[in-house]
Design brief:
This protein is α+β, with helices and mostly antiparallel strands. 24% of the residues lie in helices and 31% in strands.
C-alpha cells in the first residue's frame, strides 16, 4: 500500500473551512463542524474516496484523528471483528445478552446445502426465519415462513448470490416487536431512535406511485433546514421489490402503507426520537452489548415489544461499530439530540501532543526484524492489544538467559536459528474469553512502514494463526495511525482471520 505521512510541524495545504463540509459524509461532516466551532484547524488525509478521508484536527499543540466514527475510542480489532455477525452473536451470547437463535452455515456450493436436524428444528420451532450473510457489510435479508424447507433453500441460495459468493451465512430466528437504535458512548446511552420503514398515507384518491412522488416533493418539511439529509423514496426500487401492480393501488384514506421493507434512512426511512421513553433496563442491555464487543462508540439495535419494560422480551439483533448519527441529530419526529457535540467531546480526550511524524497504516502490514531477519512478513495490527506478541518455538531458560527460535517449522521465514536473550521478563496476558496466560517477554527491534521501533514483545505459540506477529499499542503509540479500511490483505486471509478470531478469542 501507499503510506501517507504528515509532518505535524508544518501547516497542511488542505485546510477545511465550514463551506467545504458538503463534500464529506454526514457523520464526518457533523464532527468536523464541531471541531471548527471549537477552534480546531481541520485538515484531511486523503484516501481512496473523498468521503473516506481521515480527518485531522489540531489545536493548542495537540492533534486528534477520526474517520466517520472510527476513532481511538474503538480498538481496530473490535471494528474488524464487528463485521462478523457470527462472532458478534457468539460474544453477546457468552455475555448472557439475549439474541435471536442463530445457526451458522459454511457454503461452498448452495446446491449442496441440506436441511439437517438443526435447521429442521428451527423451521418447526419459529414462525419465521431470516437468512442473512454473516458479513455485516451485506444487508440483503430473506424471510422464510415456518416449515418451508424449499423456501429456506431458496433463501440460502439468494443470500449467497447477493453477497457475491461469501461462504458464511446465518439462519436466524425472526424476533417480533419494534426495532430501536441505541447510541452508546463510553457506557452511556446518549440517544435512542425508532426507525420507521418508508411509507405513505393514503388519501382515498391517489395511487401509491403518486403518493410517493408527493412525499418526495415535500420531504424538505421532514428535515427542516437539513432537508438534504432526508433521502427520497426511490420509486424504481419500490417497483423492483413490490411490483408495478403495487404502485397502481389506491390506499384508503388515512391508511399507512409501507412501501419498502427497510429501515435504512438512505432509502427513505424515517427516524423518531424516543430517548425520553426508554427504560433503564433497556439502556443497560445496550451498554452491556457495547462493552461485550469492546466498543466505546456503538449503535445497538434492540427489538422489543415494550420500550419502557424490563427488557425480558428484548433481543439485541445488531451491533454496529461505526453507526449513523443523523437519525439522532435530525430525527423526522421527536427531539433532536446533539450527539455530534457529545461524540466530539469524547474524541477530544484522545488528542495527543504534536511533534512527531505520523505514518498511516492498515490493519495488516509487512514488518521485518532487522536484528534477526530482514525478510518481511505480514503482521496483524491490533490497537486493542497493549503489548505486541510474536510466534516463538523451542523456548527454554537457564541461568544464562532465554533461548528460543522465532517462528516455527512451516513458516516461510523460519530459519531454525536459536536466539539468546540475556534479559527477559514475564507478563500475564488475558484473552477476550477471559483465559489468562503467563508469557516470556523480550525486547527486539521491529521495522514497520519505514520506522524502526524498539519494543517489548511477548513470545507466544501462534502456529495456528494467520499472522505470526501481532503489533500492539506499545509499538503503534504516537508513531502510527491505523486506518481500518486500508491494508494489504486478501479476501481469503480476511475470512480466515475472522474464523480465527471467533475460535480463539482476540489473541
Amino acid at each position: 500500500m501507499k503510506y501517507i505521512t504528515m509532518n505535524m510541524g508544518q501547516e497542511s495545504n488542505n485546510s477545511i473551512k465550514k463551506a467545504d463540509l458538503s463534500r464529506y459524509g454526514i457523520t464526518s461532516r457533523l464532527l468536523m463542524k464541531e471541531a471548527l466551532r471549537k477552534g480546531y484547524q481541520v485538515t484531511t488525509v486523503p484516501g481512496r474516496l473523498v468521503t473516506s478521508h481521515v480527518v485531522r484536527c489540531e489545536k493548542d499543540g495537540k492533534e486528534l484523528y477520526f474517520y466517520n466514527l472510527n476513532t481511538a475510542l474503538n480498538p481496530s480489532y473490535a471494528v474488524q471483528v464487528n463485521e462478523d455477525r457470527i462472532w458478534t452473536n457468539n460474544i453477546l451470547h457468552q455475555s448472557h445478552i439475549q439474541t435471536p437463535d442463530t445457526y451458522p452455515l459454511k457454503i461452498n456450493r448452495p446446491e449442496d446445502v441440506v436441511i439437517d436436524d438443526t435447521l429442521r428444528k428451527m423451521l418447526e420451532s419459529y414462525e419465521r426465519l431470516v437468512v442473512k450473510s454473516a458479513t455485516a457489510n451485506y444487508s440483503n435479508n430473506v424471510l422464510v415462513n415456518a416449515g418451508d424447507k424449499e423456501g429456506l433453500l431458496r433463501a440460502i441460495h439468494r443470500v449467497y448470490q447477493n453477497s457475491g459468493g461469501q461462504p458464511d451465512i446465518i439462519v436466524q430466528q425472526m424476533v417480533f416487536g419494534q426495532e430501536y437504535r441505541f447510541l452508546v458512548l463510553n457506557k452511556k446511552v446518549i440517544a435512542v431512535a425508532y426507525r420507521r420503514p418508508p411509507y405513505v398515507v393514503g388519501d382515498g384518491v391517489s395511487t401509491i406511485r403518486t403518493l410517493i412522488s408527493k412525499k418526495n416533493n415535500n420531504c424538505s418539511k421532514h428535515g427542516n433546514r437539513h432537508a438534504s439529509l432526508v433521502a427520497k423514496i426511490n420509486i424504481e426500487d419500490v417497483s423492483r421489490h413490490k411490483g408495478v401492480h403495487f404502485l397502481q393501488q389506491v390506499p384508503e384514506k388515512g391508511s399507512v402503507v409501507e412501501v419498502l421493507d427497510t429501515l435504512n434512512l438512505s432509502r427513505g426511512g424515517e427516524a423518531v426520537d424516543v430517548t425520553s421513553y426508554v427504560s433503564d433496563e433497556l439502556k443497560t442491555i445496550a451498554i452491556q452489548a457495547a462493552s461485550a464487543c469492546f466498543l466505546g462508540i456503538a449503535g445497538i439495535d434492540i427489538v422489543t415489544g415494550n420500550l419502557s419494560g424490563d427488557g425480558n422480551d428484548s433481543y439485541v439483533v445488531r451491533v454496529k461499530a461505526s453507526p449513523e448519527i443523523r437519525m439522532h441529530q435530525f430525527p423526522t419526529e421527536g427531539k433532536p439530540r446533539n450527539v455530534a457535540r457529545k461524540l466530539f467531546h469524547a474524541i477530544e480526550r484522545t488528542a495527543h501532543p504534536i511533534g512527531k511524524k505520523i505514518v498511516m497504516i492498515g490493519r495488516v502490514e509487512k514488518v521485518a526484524l532487522p536484528d534477526f531477519i530482514n525478510e518481511k512478513f505480514k503482521a496483524r495490527i491490533d490497537t486493542g492489544a497493549t503489548v505486541s506478541s510474536i510466534w516463538a518455538s523451542d523456548i527454554r531458560v537457564d541461568k544464562t538467559g532465554l533461548y528460543c527460535k522465532l517462528f516455527g517449522e512451516g513458516s516461510p521465514v523460519y530459519t531454525g536459528e536459536e536466539l539468546h536473550f540475556s534479559e527477559y521478563s514475564m507478563r500475564s496476558v488475558r484473552s477476550s474469553n477471559g483465559y489468562e496466560e503467563l508469557r516470556y517477554q523480550v525486547v527486539i527491534n521491529v521495522s514497520l512502514a519505514g520506522k524502526r521501533v524498539k519494543a517489548k514483545v511477548t513470545l507466544a505459540d501462534r502456529s495456528g494463526q494467520i499472522y505470526p506477529m501481532l503489533i500492539g499499542r506499545n509499538i503503534l503509540r504516537n508513531k502510527f495511525i491505523v486506518h481500518v479500511a486500508e491494508g494489504d490483505i486478501d479476501k481469503k486471509a480476511e475470512s480466515s482471520n475472522r474464523q480465527e478470531l471467533r475460535q480463539n478469542g482476540l489473541q
